[in-house]
Amino acid sequence: MKAQQINWWAIFWIVLAALYFLLPMYGTLDFSLRMERNTISLKAYEIVFADPRFWRGFQYSTLMALITIVVSIILFVPTVYWMYLKVPQARPIMEIITILPFVIPTIVYVFGLIRTFSRPPFQLTLHAFTTDMLIVAGYVVISMPFMFRAIDVGMRALDVRTLTEAAQSLGSNWFQVLVYVIVPNLRVAILSGALISFATVMGELILASFLVRPALAPYMALLGLTKAYEPAALAIISYALTWFSLGLLQIVSQGGTTRQLTGR
Amino acid sequence: MTHLELSHIRKAFGAAVVVEDFNLAVNQGEFISFLGPSGCGKTTTLRMIAGFELPTAGTITIDGNDLTNTPPNKRNVGMVFQSYALFPNMTVAHNVGYGLKITSKSKAEIMQRVHEMLALIQMEEFAQRYPFQLSGGQQQRVALARALAIRPQLLLLDEPLSALDAKIRLELRHEIRRIQRQLGITTIYVTHDQEEALSLSDRIVVMSKGKIEQVGTPTEIYNAPATEFVARFVGHINLLPVTVLNPTDGVISLGRQTLRAGRFGKLNGRPVQLAVRPEEINLGAKPDTNTLSGEVESVTYLGSIVRIGLRIEHHPLSLDVFNEHTLKLPRIGETHTIHFPVNACWLIEKSD
């Protein structure tokens, strides 16, 4: 029997890639701990956490992210479901539309939004609340590729048509089919989409800064221009937040995959 | 008493006509099979009864009520799918109780009915399992219980056994018939498997290219197929081109050999064929029967029977003999005489 050979090239590339990601992170972490001369301290973190603007930004972004997720789910679950059921030929068009936010630079998109909606008849940027409506709409578009794809993959694992027909023959109307049958079976897919959208919104800079709303990313950018150690600490905090979201995603999807994949 | 009536049903998808002039009256408690090759329109017809497709023309009535345009969730028709279609997020009990929950029945009533249904399919101990923890056969039984739990006026089964292996298929076939008889529910069963249709049904509707070829009891379909299509599709049959010599006495000729046919179907002057089932033909000669001779071309062992292929007047013909221990099989290349009763053969016209 042949002994298993160690693929040195594979290891080399893995190490190289890991260094490429980890070294800057380590550098940032190290730098963020050196605010006080000749000692390791959490001073920079203390300052960030003590700043009410951080908390306001965090709170604002979290709220906007949650609203974005709810709006996205309400918008995309029925849309993708309808596409699967009634217009499967529209799939290529949907693919192109949902990829547009990747193709069009956000800055172009934001200018378009502002030019259209800050003038009559809309004038949405006059009030904070209406600006927030605009910002959520923008976030929904920016996170659309993730949300669409997550739900799309979830639906593909289900026999949507037959499940719908089975539920209908048992007396369900469209709403009941969606609520009792489709959505519960898309739980994992919807959660993955939601968590990626959450991470996207938390880190979104351009939309919030051009619409002048107190989100987390503009605060980070501002801090980066004026301070040295605090932005590094903030970067680590936002890393942690993102990794926490991704970790959550991992746990949730592991919990449900067996049922999702074999329960057809 | 007519329970379900389909009259002049037609279904077209764009230019393609899938079902044409479909007429059928089904009695209360009857078990009807739609039998035909894939693409013959049997599933489309079933889906129109379920309400998943709307007929392009024609009407569907149950107990005299026109349901042609009623949405599927208002028809009270139970449906079982080939792919089981159990809800993956629900336990067996919740799957079975789903239809009752939708109609806002009380918890106690749902529980009692679920229990009743699980007893009917003999799966009480599986109530708390999820579909992915069940075998295919078990899943399909749950699907059957789920469809029956709502006390539907009709039960529709769309190739329910096609995804299962042979042994389970046979078991479940008996189970479906037992339950159907026990409940006396009017049932429409779609299949491409003639054995299923013959063994289960009160009547069979044989379909081809969107049209009904023949409606009849299994015996009628097998013993007196009305068209060449039915004759060829159901069971194995020998069709030999013949010339009618004397229509009154049924005298016909096959090449140089003269024969007699017991029954004449409807003949409209097109070329005719002699139809005879392989099991009606025996080796050797016998007086007062049709006797032919030909060369043995193949001997195929099929377990309980052996199928012998001969060439008679340039035409292939096969006959079945029981695999008894005394059986002496003919050898390939030998010339043998065969015979079959006059009443066991009939004439049908060649189709286009």
UniProtKB/TrEMBL annotation, chain A:
The chain crosses the membrane at residues 6-27, 63-84, 96-114, 126-146, 190-212, 232-252. It is found in: Cell inner membrane; Cell membrane. SUPFAM superfamilies: MetI-like. Keywords: Cell inner membrane, Cell membrane, Membrane, Transmembrane, Transmembrane helix, Transport. It is a multi-pass membrane protein. Residues 58-250 form the ABC transmembrane type-1 domain. It comes from the Bacteria. PANTHER family: INNER MEMBRANE ABC TRANSPORTER PERMEASE PROTEIN YDCV. Belongs to the binding-protein-dependent transport system permease family. This is ABC transporter permease subunit.
Automatic annotation (TrEMBL), chain B:
Residues 4-234 form the ABC transporter domain. Pfam families: ABC_tran, TOBE_2. It comes from the Bacteria. SMART domains: AAA (SM00382). Keywords: ATP-binding, Cell membrane, Membrane, Nucleotide-binding, Translocase, Transport. It catalyses: ATP + H2O + polyamine-[polyamine-binding protein]Side 1 = ADP + phosphate + polyamineSide 2 + [polyamine-binding protein]Side 1. The keyword Lyase does not apply. PROSITE patterns: ABC_TRANSPORTER_1 (PS00211), ABC_TRANSPORTER_2 (PS50893). The keyword Ligase does not apply. InterPro entries: AAA+_ATPase, ABC_SmlMolc_Importer, ABC_transporter-like_ATP-bd, ABC_transporter-like_CS, Mo/tungstate-bd_C_term_dom, NA-bd_OB-fold, P-loop_NTPase, PotA-like. GO terms for molecular function: ATP binding. Its EC number is 7.6.2.11. Part of the ABC transporter complex PotABCD involved in spermidine/putrescine import. Responsible for energy coupling to the transport system. The complex is composed of two ATP-binding proteins (PotA), two transmembrane proteins (PotB and PotC) and a solute-binding protein (PotD). PANTHER family: SPERMIDINE/PUTRESCINE IMPORT ATP-BINDING PROTEIN POTA, SPERMIDINE_PUTRESCINE IMPORT ATP-BINDING PROTEIN POTA. Belongs to the ABC transporter superfamily. Spermidine/putrescine importer (TC 3.A.1.11.1) family. This is Spermidine/putrescine import ATP-binding protein PotA. It comes from Candidatus Chloroploca mongolica.
